[in-house]
């Protein structure tokens, strides 16, 4: 048995779920570091990406991103405090609040796009282009299947 202090333990590598979880944890750390360079957390970025092409009702954002509604309130509060987004009353539904992206929020998304491209290239560098595309296709297939479940 070989031992690599930086890799997953050899006796756990036989489980695909363990490997996926181990790699995903490292990918998440890498992604969080990139997003943090712009002063955001991944959930903040998720909100900004959802509203970059137009405003969205705050409760719809919660549903869309699968974020508990009180947590979404905090996320939007953070984005407003940073000058990335703002709440406005819905034009026809007095009970609803829309979240609008501001120019600084658009710029933050653009910056993350550029930084994430480089980080992704580095993270997936052990794979050739075909392997990377295959991995992406398989993960997309799994994600689409998960989307059909509650």
UniProtKB/TrEMBL annotation:
InterPro entries: HTH_MarR-typ, MarR/SlyA-like, WH-like_DNA-bd_sf, WH_DNA-bd_sf
UniProt superkingdom: Bacteria
UniProt xrefs under SUPFAM superfamilies: Winged helix' DNA-binding domain
SMART domains the UniProt entry points to: HTH_MARR (SM00347)
Coiled-coil residue spans: none
A UniProt-annotated Pfam family: MarR_2
HTH marR-type domain boundaries: 1-144
UniProt protein name: MarR family transcriptional regulator
